[in-house]
Amino acid sequence: MKKVLIVEDSSTVTKILKHLIKQHPDITALFAGSLAEGQALYEQYGDEIFAGIIDLNLPDAPNGEMVDYLLHKELPVIVLTANYQEDRREQLLDKGIVDYIIKESRYSYNYALNLIHRLEKNQTIKILIAEDSRPTRTFIKALLEKHLYQVMEASNGLEALDVLKDNPDIKLLITDYHMPEMDGFDLVRAIRHNVDKSGLVIIGLSGEGKGSLSAKFIKNGANDFLQKPFSHEELYCRVMHNIEELELIEQIQDTANRDYLTNLHNRRYYFDKGEVLYNNAVNNDTPFAVAMIDIDHFKQINDNYGHEAGDKVLVFLAEELRLAFSRFVVARLGGEEFSILMPGLSNEQAFTLLDKFRGMASAMTIDINADDGELLNISLSMGVTNYLHESLDQQLHYADQLLYRAKEAGRNMVVGDEDADE
Ligand SMILES: Nc1nc2c(ncn2[C@@H]2O[C@H](COP(=O)(O)OP(=O)(O)OP(=O)(O)O)[C@@H](O)[C@H]2O)c(=O)[nH]1
């Protein structure tokens, strides 16, 4: 991860920040106590520095010169200050700082560090602004870019729909009401036909003195609204709050889709995603390989070394499968049974990949922390089929039958469609 430059002359504050940073192992901080030291560090590490947390008053920079220095380098700056002055705060926000934090408690320092995480994540978040007034669009874009979001623009509702179609990974839309071609309400309604509130966040912009527009936006499917004119902080807070809510929902959905032990995808996700891939293959007449994988004599591992050792083997194998088949859907369907969905691969191609993995797996040693330091070997049996049958469920069932042929034939092998036809 890139580095954060922290320039602070108080040894107490520096000590607290150093302590708190230990709880954020993914943040690497460079500490300086003055403008001169801060500039020297910037000159040395410039390209690696991603943001700054800067004390406003330093012994050799009493008027925020360090803040100006980094803003000039176009770096996001979080300002720390001991006292709050409304006009100074406004001035700094106008200059383009990310936030202004009063040195009050641990909470404020943690807030600053969380903001650093936020900035890091923002770089991957796409936001679309639909607004016909170019100056307003440019103003909002510039503000959001200060927080490192990727910003796209549209000058009316129809254009916004096109941009959304081409960029399905846009997370948030900020839309005005009055626009030519298609207004904000029609845009929201059109989007909500296909995408719900957890798929795309919409913030409506309502004009000055038109309070009822805000409620209408929400009733038409927007998540939130902002009344014009708004302050920088209002925009940032609304955007950040909504993005964080979306991330929380994504996190909950992801947890519900994963197996608790191995963190691989679970049965529920496998079938949800699998149905889409299966139908795609049927409709487009493209190859679709489904594999079943089972650890040989797994019961003996549990019996000889205990259930915990068995769990370690499952976690180990899951990680190897995840790495080796990262392009595909890998799931733990239950117990010691795993499945992989490989759209686009012929049976021969899938067989080759699986057999290579089988060979690798049989050569691996697994440390199960046995008292005698024993390392364990495992072997895998697999079945893989490209016969689509009537449903994914049936195809999987057939892959399972091929897997049992592999077991019957002596284990530690892959059985594909060709072997089964013989
Ligand atoms: N440690 C551990 N064991 C599990 C888990 N889920 C299922 N098992 C065990 O997995 C074993 C599966 O054994 P069997 O289906 O009899 O087959 P096997 O011993 O693998 O033998 P073959 O498949 O015939 O090679 C059973 O002993 C289950 O108790 C789990 O989450 N953790």
TrEMBL record:
Cofactor needs: Mg(2+)
Top-rank lineage group of the source organism: Bacteria
Protein name in the entry: diguanylate cyclase
Modified residues (4-aspartylphosphate): 55, 176
Catalytic reactions of this protein: 2 GTP = 3',3'-c-di-GMP + 2 diphosphate
Molecular function, one GO term: diguanylate cyclase activity
GO biological process: cell adhesion involved in single-species biofilm formation; negative regulation of bacterial-type flagellum-dependent cell motility; phosphorelay signal transduction system
Keyword annotations of the record: Phosphoprotein
EC number: 2.7.7.65
Residue ranges occupied by any GGDEF domain in the UniProt entry: 286-419
InterPro entries attached to this UniProt entry: CheY-like_superfamily, Diguanylate_Cyclase, GGDEF_dom, Nucleotide_cyclase, Rev_trsase/Diguanyl_cyclase, Sig_transdc_resp-reg_receiver
GO cellular component: plasma membrane
